[in-house]
Hints:
Elements: E1 13-16, E2 19-22, H1 33-37, E3 40-48, E4 51-52, H2 55-68, H3 77-91, E5 96-104, E6 118-125, E7 137-146, H4 163-174, E8 179-184, E9 189-192, E10 196-201, E11 204-208, H5 217-228, E12 233-236, E13 248-253, E14 257-264, E15 267-268, H6 273-285
Parallel strand pairs: 7-8, 7-14, 11-12
Antiparallel strand pairs: 1-2, 1-6, 3-4, 3-5, 5-6, 8-9, 10-11, 10-13, 13-14, 14-15
Amino acid sequence: MSKVIPFTQTTGNIWINGEMIPVEDAKIPLLSHGLHYGSTVFEGERAYGGVIFKSGQHTSRLMNSCQLLGFELPFDFDSFEQSKMDVLQDSGLKDAYIRAIAWRGSGALGVGSSNNKINAAIAIWQMSPYFNSADGIRLTISIWRRPPAQCAPVKAKAAGLYAICTLSKDASLSAGYDDALMLDIKGRIAECTGAHIFFVQDNQLFTPKADWMIDGITRASVMEIADKLQVPVAETSILPEQIPDFSEAFICGSAVEIVPVREIAGTEFTPGELTQKIINAYDKMKYGLPF
């Protein structure tokens, strides 16, 4: 089982509502709406060589998540982009993980939130590999299912939507796996607890449709790589019983990057040539190198 890497910033400064403050002074009121009712959205981003990878796409998605939860990010696009770069430069780090977050703060403490202040923060730290498994990770299948668009703002990267992901992740670790694969409400393969999934068959990639999932930025990067490598990609419905039909599988996300899968609930895979080609290309892409 891979080692779990904690997400934490213990030193340096955190940007909150336009100000840099020491991490030990970064506090929010206990009676914040986002803490009690989940009215919080966030982004997980990485910097490579002093440049935040696809930063603008992350900021745009954060703003969209805010709108889906009924509030606006209290900074415009350009100023928030600059703030992320300021945090990175202030940290002195070249390769880093960036957590941008926005939430409804103190005010009326009830389900309604019209009078609550909107806050934003940016934290940064050096992050070890999310999974420490050279030969691939093991996935179980969660009992929890991703909600349909009629039941939740599924295109928002909203904190509340991650409750079932936490339950799924913790259960998978307790069972000796590295992560959990989640199905959608119709029983089709959806995604992992914090990453999208791709399968390989006959030198072609297959991935679940993203109609009921957040639009993954790393997922889109994989598809961009596949296009340049002239590898066909099919966005399609995939059922659990189809898992043995594939020869390779890998997951992808900003935090996990691209990681091979060696087992899904008893079905074993051998990470192969195409998975490695995608990983190699992504390792170049994230540093702005040609591939």
